[in-house]
Design a protein that fits this description.
Helix content: 25-40%
Radius of gyration: 15 Å
Distance between the termini: 37 Å
Number of helices: 6
Low-confidence stretches: none
Mean pLDDT: 93
Shape: globular
Structural class: alpha/beta
Largest sheet: 5 strands, mixed
Length: 181
């Protein structure tokens, strides 16, 4: 893993990180917004301690533990990655309520265009803010975007300590089973 100085990470603030997407995916995973490490590397969920890649493997979505730099390989499994808010920040709490709402609107447009079978938002707080659904819980949602079903997954950030990699993998696996059927 490349080491970045604090100055290099700060220079990545507000950068955009390209989506990993294609038409007709099985699952489009949607993060909150890129962190500074993600923006510096150009690879989603790149911060050491983020459990997205290990959980993707543990849940059966990926046949092996992948590195963030291998993110394009996800497309061969029918998977993709995008974000609610495109701009990079050090912490999600730096985002405004308006950015979340606008991000939700733009995400819905993207999903309508790309038509994935499932949209999986990683982070219930981000989902609630983006779609103004204060009562949403982790799991399948009643909301659909066009023909796309929506599932909220736990946030894989290391800061989300009450979800272990194992319990997170169980929830991701529930989505995988639904996506396979």
């Amino acid at each position: 893993m490349t080491r970045f100085t604090p100055e290099e990470l700060e220079a990545a603030r507000d950068r955009l990180v390209p989506d990993v997407v294609a038409d007709g995916l099985h699952v489009l995973f949607c993060g909150i917004n890129p962190g500074l490490m993600t923006a510096a590397t150009g690879h989603h969920f790149a911060r050491p301690g983020n459990r997205f890649w290990p959980v993707l493997h543990l849940s059966g979505f990926a046949p092996r533990l992948m590195k963030p730099s291998e993110q394009e390989e996800l497309l061969s499994y029918g998977l993709g990655i995008t974000n609610v808010v495109a701009r990079a920040s050090a912490r999600a709490d730096e985002l405004s309520a308006e950015e979340y709402r606008e991000g939700g609107r733009l995400l819905a447009e993207k999903v309508t265009r790309l038509k994935p079978r499932w949209l999986a938002v990683v982070g219930v707080t981000a989902y609630r803010a983006a779609f103004e659904d204060r009562k949403a819980q982790v799991g399948p949602q009643g909301r659909m975007i066009g023909d796309t079903r929506v599932w909220v997954l736990p946030n894989p950030s290391g800061l989300n300590a009450h979800w272990t990699a194992a319990t997170m993998a169980e929830e991701f696996a529930r989505l995988r089973v639904a996506a396979d059927s």
